[in-house]
Design brief:
By secondary structure, this protein is of the alpha/beta class. It has 17 helices and 23 strands. α4 runs antiparallel to α5. The radius of gyration is 25 Å and the shape is globular. The structure holds flavin-adenine dinucleotide (FAD).
C-alpha cells in the first residue's frame, strides 16, 4: 500500500486537512517507550483495530496499537466516509437536473464546483476523524505506535526499532486495492480508492473498471458530477453477488444517469497517446477502443499480509484469502487473533467492528463467541441503494431449504410514489410454510436504512406474522416491509379457513 507521508500530502493544506492529519497521524509524533509486556497488541488501526483497542483498554487491559499510515484505516480516510460524502453531493446534482419531475425548474446552467465538493468531503472527514483520533486513544490509555509492525517471534514484534512483547495480539491490517494485470495500465497511470479522493479536478472522461460496489458507487457519483463515464464489467450484470433483478434495476438506473454501460466486456490494454488514455475493450462479439482522461479501478481487494513476517509468529495465511482464522477468529498461533478485512470474506466496516468485538472477548476472557453466529447485512450506496441480509434463494436451495418469496414493488408504496422514488422492491424470503425470515433484498432509495428492520427480525427470531402486527408510520418507504408481511398473512387464509370464516360470519 502506498503510504502517505502526512507532511507532504498533495491535498490543499486547508484547515480541514490540518485537523484530519493532526487527528490521524500528527506530524512530529514520537512513539512511547514500550511497556515490558502488553496484555494486547493490535496491529492496524482501521475500524477493527480501533474498536479492539478501545474495548480492551476500557476493560482494563494494557494495550498497544500499531499503525503504519493513518488511524481510521480505509473507512475513514479512503473508503466509506469520503465516498458517502461525495455520493450525497452527487445526488443533489442529480435532483437539480431532475427538478421538473418535482414541479421545480432546473437551473439553466448547472455547474459542478468539483473543488467545493471535495472540500466538503474533507470537512466531513476531518470532523469524523475526531472519533478515531490519537488523542482519544491516548486518553483511553492506549499506547499508540506509528510504523510498520513485523513479528519477530510467537509473542513479540518490532515497530520503528522498538520491541513489543504481548500476551495476546490481534492482526487487523485490512486490505488494499487489487491491481488488475492489464498491459499498459500501470504506465498510463490509474486511480484507486487510495488516491481518487485526492482529486481536485473532475476528469472530463472517466473509465471505471469493475462493477462491484466500489465501481458502481463511484461511477454513478462521477457521472452525476458531469464526467463522461463508462463502466466496464466482465460479468453479464453488476454486483454479481446480488439477485439478478436487483442488478438489472441498477443497470437501468445507470442508463438513466447517462453512464455508458459495457457489460460482458474486458479491458485488454491501455496506452497513452496525445495526452489521453486509449483503452482497448473486448466484448462478446466486438472490439473497441475508448479515449478517456482517467481510469478508476475497483476490481477487488487483497488482504494486507505482506511485511508482517507472519512465519516468525507461526500464523498461517494466504496471499488472496488473508490471515487464516477459525470460527473464534483465532489464528494458528493461539495467542494471535484476526479481525476485519485482513481475514474475512465480507469486507465491511460493520463486520470489521463486530469481528473485533468477538476477537477481544475470545482473546481476553476465554470467550467462545463465533463469527458464524453473526447476521451481517450490507448495502451498496448507489441510487437506488441495494441492500441485502441473510440467505439468497440460491443459497437456500443449496441447503435444501424450501423458500417462499414475498415481493412488494416500491411503486406500490405511497411514500415512494410521493417522493418520486419508485424504482425498486422489497423482497423477503421465508422458509416455506413458516414465517421464518431467511433473507431479504431491498432495492430502494433508502434501502440501507430499511434493511436494518429485517436484520433485527432475523437476529431476534421475529417472523413475518409479527412484522405484520408492527405499525409502521404512514407514509414511509419501510411500509413495503409491512406490506410483504401482510402478503404472507394472506397466504394463511387457506380454503378451509376461508370457508370456516364465511360460515362464522353468516352465523
Ligand atoms: C471506496 C470504499 C468504500 C467503502 N464503503 C463502505 C461502506 O459504505 N460501508 C461499509 O461497511 N464498508 C465500506 N467499505 C469497506 C470498509 O472500508 C472496510 O471493510 C473497513 O475499512 C475494514 O476495516 P479494517 O479495520 O479491517 O481494515 P482497514 O480499514 O483497512 O485498516 C487496516 C489498517 O492496518 C494498517 N496496516 C496494515 N498493515 C500494517 C502493518 N504491517 N503495520 C501497521 N499497520 C498496518 C493499514 O495502514 C490500515 O490503516 C468501503 C471500502 C472502500 C475502499
Amino acid at each position: 500500500m502506498p503510504q502517505r507521508n502526512p507532511p507532504t500530502s498533495t491535498l490543499p493544506q486547508d484547515a480541514h486537512e490540518r485537523e484530519w492529519l493532526e487527528n490521524v497521524h500528527p506530524s512530529g509524533w514520537r512513539n512511547p517507550q514500550p511497556a515490558e509486556r502488553y496484555s494486547l497488541v493490535v496491529v492496524g488501526a482501521g475500524t477493527a483495530g480501533l474498536v479492539a483497542a478501545h474495548a480492551a483498554a476500557a476493560l482494563g487491559a494494557q494495550v498497544a496499537l500499531i499503525e503504519r499510515d493513518l488511524l481510521g484505516g480505509d473507512c475513514l480516510n479512503v473508503g466509506c466516509v469520503p465516498s458517502k460524502a461525495i455520493i450525497r453531493t452527487s445526488r443533489l446534482y442529480a435532483e437539480m437536473r431532475n427538478a421538473e419531475q418535482y414541479g421545480g425548474q432546473s437551473p439553466a446552467d448547472i455547474r459542478v464546483e468539483f473543488p467545493a465538493v471535495m472540500q466538503r468531503m474533507r470537512g466531513i472527514r476531518a470532523r469524523i476523524s475526531r472519533v478515531d483520533s490519537v488523542r482519544r486513544l491516548t486518553t483511553a490509555g492506549v499506547d499508540v505506535f506509528f510504523g510498520q509492525a513485523s513479528f519477530t517471534g510467537p509473542d513479540a514484534l518490532t515497530v520503528d526499532g522498538a520491541s513489543l512483547r504481548f500476551k495476546k495480539a490481534l492482526i487487523a491490517t485490512g486490505a488494499r486495492p487489487d491491481t488488475p494485470s492489464i498491459p499498459g495500465l500501470v504506465e498510463a497511470g490509474y486511480l484507486t480508492n487510495e488516491n481518487v479522493f485526492d482529486l481536485t479536478e473532475l476528469p472530463r472522461r472517466l473509465l471505471v473498471i469493475g462493477g462491484g460496489p466500489l465501481g458502481c458507487e463511484l461511477a454513478q457519483a462521477f457521472c452525476r458530477f458531469g464526467a463522461q463515464t463508462i463502466i466496464v464489467q466482465s460479468w453479464p450484470l453488476f454486483l454479481p453477488k446480488e439477485e439478478r433483478d436487483a442488478a438489472q434495476l441498477l443497470s437501468e438506473a445507470f442508463a438513466r444517469d447517462g453512464i455508458e454501460v459495457r457489460l460482458n466486456t474486458k479491458v485488454v490494454s491501455v496506452r497513452v497517446e496525445g495526452g489521453q488514455k486509449l483503452v482497448d475493450l473486448v466484448s462478446d462479439d466486438y472490439q473497441s477502443t475508448v479515449a478517456v482522461d482517467a481510469i478508476l479501478t475497483g476490481t477487488g481487494r487483497v488482504p494486507n499480509v505482506d511485511g508482517l513476517n507472519l512465519e516468525a509468529a507461526g500464523v498461517d495465511y494466504d496471499n488472496t484469502l488473508g490471515i487464516r482464522v477459525d470460527d473464534f477468529l483465532q489464528t494458528s498461533n493461539r495467542r494471535i487473533y484476526g479481525a476485519g478485512d485482513a481475514c474475512l470474506e465480507d469486507k465491511f466496516t460493520h463486520t470489521a467492528d463486530a469481528s473485533a468485538r468477538i476477537a477481544i472477548q475470545n482473546a481476553l476472557f476465554l470467550g467462545r463467541q463465533r463469527l458464524s453466529a453473526l447476521t451481517i447485512p450490507w448495502c451498496t450506496y448507489t441510487d437506488p441503494e441495494i441492500a441485502h441480509v441473510g440467505l439468497y434463494v440460491r443459497q437456500a436451495r443449496e441447503r435444501d431449504i424450501p423458500v417462499k418469496t414475498f415481493t412488494i414493488p416500491m411503486h406500490d408504496v405511497d411514500r415512494a410514489i410521493a417522493d418520486g422514488e419508485e424504482a425498486g422492491f422489497v423482497k423477503i424470503h421465508v422458509k416455506e410454510r413458516t414465517d421464518r425470515i431467511l433473507g431479504a433484498t431491498i432495492v430502494a432509495r433508502h434501502a440501507g436504512e430499511m434493511i436494518n428492520e429485517l436484520t433485527l427480525a432475523i437476529v431476534a427470531g421475529i417472523g413475518l406474522r409479527t412484522l405484520a402486527r408492527v405499525i409502521h408510520a404512514y407514509p414511509t418507504q419501510a411500509e413495503a416491509i409491512k406490506k410483504a408481511a401482510d402478503a404472507y398473512n394472506r397466504t394463511r387464509l387457506t380454503p378451509t379457513i376461508q370457508s370456516l370464516l364465511r360460515r362464522w360470519l353468516k352465523w
